[in-house]
Design brief:
Elements (H helix, E strand, L loop, with lengths): L53 H15 L19 H15 L2 H14 L18 H12 L3 H16 L10 H14 L6 H14 L3 H16 L8 H15 L16 H10 L1 E2 L2 E5 L15 H14 L5 H13 L20 H14 L4 E4 L11 E3 L2 E2 L4 E2 L2 H7 L4 E4 L17 E4 L5
Parallel strand pairs: 3-6, 3-7, 7-8
Antiparallel strand pairs: 1-2, 4-5
Helix pairs in contact: 1-2, 1-13, 2-3, 2-4, 2-13, 3-4, 4-5, 4-7, 6-7, 6-8, 7-8, 7-9, 8-9, 9-10, 9-11, 10-11, 11-12, 11-13
Length: 445
């Protein structure tokens, strides 16, 4: 059985997300108020198509995500399906990061619209009217204030989340501090039989606290991420994305993890955990992370979009140089799942409109934007290379290595295109609409 992990926990005492196992479909989000909805039927889609240009690819993928947004600012969990408050922050971050790379104002407008879906009237509350945050929403709202220069989103999180955690007055009983909040997540997931997911749940919360300068809250949450790792005692569903979340948060927050129990007890540091994460991929593709660590790694369909997205962000945060080739291979794998509509399939062979696919699509878009290269290389000798081929040390075709000038220009993110010795004849007029440098090995550059 295969499930897409595509929901975010919403903390409500006595009311947890319910995990309903279905054959190759996702568990559905439960927000503590609504009943578990029925499975949503997949929607139609186009044929597979892989774009080589990071910027054009990002634009195509972002336009697909934009097409999913409803007028009130929310995003469905599944294309054509219902809107759930607990998936909004992690989904809307895709629009925000797409704006950072492309500077397309429509993408920022979409992120702002989703911010206004949350602020000032939060879509989900405790019985006393206090906002009930999902674990990935604070990070989105903090970043939205940074990108827009409008402090109202960060101020809202400060008042209703960080300050209440600091004073121990968060939650249904107004009695949770940061450590209590984190422990509640771990306990909740353990009660569901999936403690391995709790490090992913808390990863964005800890990073959000880090961005907000709430170091005591950050460290308290990181200690509970460690507890979640130690509670992971057997390989199981979502153990890979759970580890990816732990490494991601550890790297950004500067908090080293040394678990002493569970399947990661032999690790002495985050470096060891990153090395473990690095190995949980398809045997034939080091950029395609598995949906769980103990599945057949020779079956291409066990590569997973959402897990790969967080693994790429984790390794990029921890050691972007040492893991450069694998990060690039991860980008290539994500690109290989793109449909002609711009939709990213949940895994190789998945149907378009897969349950929970809008969130997973957005998280993969976030990953691609996060690791967009600042330097790319062009060599006409690479014209026969395939997407994901390592053509030179630190250079992966379709990510930061291309055979045409157009490919190099489209892929670079406001920095440098390196033209290696060769003859380059553009197929059409090349229009450069961003600040870049072109460095060549010979005449005519």
């Amino acid at each position: 059985m295969r499930f897409l992990k595509a929901w975010v926990i919403v903390l409500a005492l006595g009311a947890l997300l319910f995990a309903q196992k279905q054959n190759r479909t996702a568990v559905l989000p439960y927000d503590g108020v609504n009943l578990l909805p029925p499975a949503e039927a997949p929607q139609g889609g186009g044929g597979a198509e892989s774009a080589l240009s990071n910027e054009l690819y990002i634009t195509t993928a972002a336009n697909y995500l934009l097409s999913q947004q409803v007028p009130g600012g929310g995003f469905p969990w599944t294309s054509g399906g219902a809107i759930y408050s607990n998936t909004q922050g992690t989904t809307a971050r895709g629009m925000l990061l797409a704006y950072e790379v492309t500077k397309n104002p429509a993408f920022l407008d979409a992120a702002v619209l989703n911010g206004d879906y949350h602020v000032p009237v939060f879509p989900l509350t405790y019985s006393d009217g206090d906002p009930r945050f999902s674990t990935h929403t604070p990070l989105f709202l903090e970043q939205l204030s940074i990108y827009t220069g409008d402090s109202k989103y960060a101020d809202f999180v400060q008042t209703w989340f960080w300050d209440k955690l600091a004073s121990g007055t968060y939650g249904e009983g107004n009695d949770l501090d940061a450590a209590g909040f984190g422990a509640y997540v771990v306990t909740a997931r353990t009660g569901q039989g999936i403690p391995q997911l709790s490090p992913w749940d808390l990863s964005a919360t800890a990073i959000g606290a880090h961005v907000a300068g709430e170091t005591a809250i950050r460290d308290a949450l990181m200690s509970q991420i460690l507890a979640g790792l130690e509670a992971t005692t057997v390989p199981s569903t979502w153990d890979v994305i759970g580890l990816a979340g732990a490494v991601w948060a550890s790297a950004i927050c500067g908090y080293d993890l040394d678990p002493t129990a569970g399947i990661h007890a032999s690790a002495n540091s985050t470096a060891d955990l990153a090395a473990t994460l690095s190995g949980w991929t398809l045997a034939a593709n080091s950029g395609a992370w598995l949906w769980r660590s103990d599945v057949d790694n020779t079956d291409p369909s066990n590569g997973d979009l959402q897990t790969t997205a967080f693994a790429v962000m984790a390794l990029n945060a921890f050691d972007p140089v040492g893991y450069a080739d694998q990060i690039a291979a991860g980008v290539a794998f994500i690109k290989s799942l793109e449909e002609s509509t711009g939709e990213l399939l949940a895994y190789p062979g998945a149907a378009p409109g897969y349950t929970g696919g809008v969130e997973a699509h957005a998280e993969a878009l976030t990953a691609i934007c996060t690791v967009a290269p600042s330097d790319v290389y062009v060599d006409d000798d690479w014209s026969t290379a395939a997407l994901g081929d390592v053509v030179a040390p630190g250079q992966t075709f379709g990510y930061n290595a291309f055979s045409t000038v157009e490919g190099g220009i489209d892929n670079v993110s406001n920095s440098t295109v390196h033209l290696l010795p060769g003859v380059f004849v553009p197929s059409a007029q090349v229009v450069i609409s961003k600040d870049i440098s072109m460095v060549g090995a010979g005449m005519g550059v």
